[in-house]
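task queued by scheduler; priority normal; single chain, no ligands, no partner chains; default sampling; output format set to structure tokens
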Amino acid sequence: MKSSSKVIDKEPTERFEYEENFQGPIGDRKYRDVFCLIVFVAFWVGMFIIMAVGFATGTPKRLYYPKDYRGNICGMDNTKFKDKLTDEVNNNSDLDFLADLTKRTRCFFPYFHVDLEFCVEECPSQGDLEQIIDKGNCNGDPVITTYVNNDPVGQFCSYKSDSVLRRCLPSISSSKSDNDATNAAKDNEDSSTTVAKVMGDFVQSWWVYIVAIFAAVLLSFAWILLVKKFSGFMVWLTVILFFILLAVLTWYFHKQWKDSDTVSNTKKMNSDSLNAKSFKILFWIMIAVDILAVIIVIWLYKRIILAVALIEEAATAIKAMPRIVFFPLITFVLLLILYAYSIAVAAFLLSSGKPKAEEKNGEYYLEFENTSAMNYLTIYHFFGLLWTNSYIIALTQATIAGAIASCLNGENRCVKYCFYCMKCFLACLHGWMKFINKNGYIMIAVYGESFWKSTKRAFHLISRNILRVLTVSAVGDFLLFLGKFLVAIAVGIISLGILRSMNNISFYLIPTILCAVLAYAIASAFMSVFEMAIDTMLLCFCEDAERHDGSSPDREPYASERLQKYMNKNKAELKNQKEEYEPLKSANDND
């Protein structure tokens, strides 16, 4: 067990002093912030109660199953609502429109511009779309000629359609007749159909998301392992590959813009036009990103050279604990469980409205009214999701920080001591809070102090070393951002290639963006190990510089010569810039 430090008896605002028996992270710890833990547990008890209420009153099918023109939910026995609606109608016969549609799970739209929908067992597999557009005579399809209680509801023209999110949408075929029908329907492709197709693309491309997730995991692992082995080389390789992929992506968006524009002029369908416009916007966005990236890299060129040393020091610490790179997988699984639970509860809460019989033009329609109480419960549960999400991330960062701190305080004498800063006050800007937050978990891992005391001590430590902390941390974060962006772009290109080869995808660009976002999130989770290692290394150096000023042999700094040279060079450059700026500022003030 490691010995305690005198620092826990000092005021958080005081500088750190030399301690002969200081052995790094404190082993003799006590429970801190017990009140906050009690509040957190009590909040989760409330969330479980809300979950029980939602499961008892909710009907999730109402969210993803379509409705017919009278409000009946497809795929459900709507007659069970009769007992709750008898007081709202004059006669019980007014509720005869409620039907058992358990076997009718899909919704068919006989006409494009008429608010008329029917629940059917399956989407029509035959028919001519032009007959509907021209409103000519046609025979009724057996699937849609009868609806409730086998009573005929008229003869409707059927058209060949596919089920998209349980909505029957016109099929896209390569045959000439079907293409003619599709061209005839171009003016009838409204916004609701477009939205339905977009949602259908998400469902149809579900397996592409799995491929993207696995690709992101493999690329992130490969990047981390290569950085561990070849730190300096990988930093520059990441920068070079970053620009290569930016150039390839810019060229690809321009090519797809021109190709999609040509197709949209030929077919004149909304999906092709939207793809062309999307690629055009993305092309100009990439031009701006290319210019901005070149400016930033040129501006940070000298600091990137120096930052290689910091990356190498972080890689040295991670090499001592090779299995730590797998730790983000635990966080990833915990977050998946949390999100799955939260989505399930939210589905029940949002579908727990009270059924009502709404009268329109002498007929009754089934409607659902959400109560204000359920809205408040949903907000409460959503806040719990955000709180727990932050807690899991904080737990991960604190664990990694503690492991890195223990390694750095070992016999390798890379860096002797670490400091970890806790959350900044809620009045701070979000970015500053996040910066303080990340470093705060390290401080708790080292000294085991309370929430507010750790925050105060961390704030003053950073304030005393503000030039070192902000500039060095910014360069390190930028290099890691390039790695994350590299993974996201690579996965996005792979996903786009797969989606372009699928004939049943209309708006392939939207699922591609989702795959890239998922890849960036996964890469961020895995590279958080390096982020915490760099931040730990940085604050360890600041604390080590205060304790060991080199005034005597027993006060020699524990930081490596490479790290000392890097940090001191950054500090000297910033000091010179400040000295050059002060006379100019004074002259301007005098004028």
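post-processing summary
- The first helix runs from residue 34 to 57.
- The mean pLDDT is 70.
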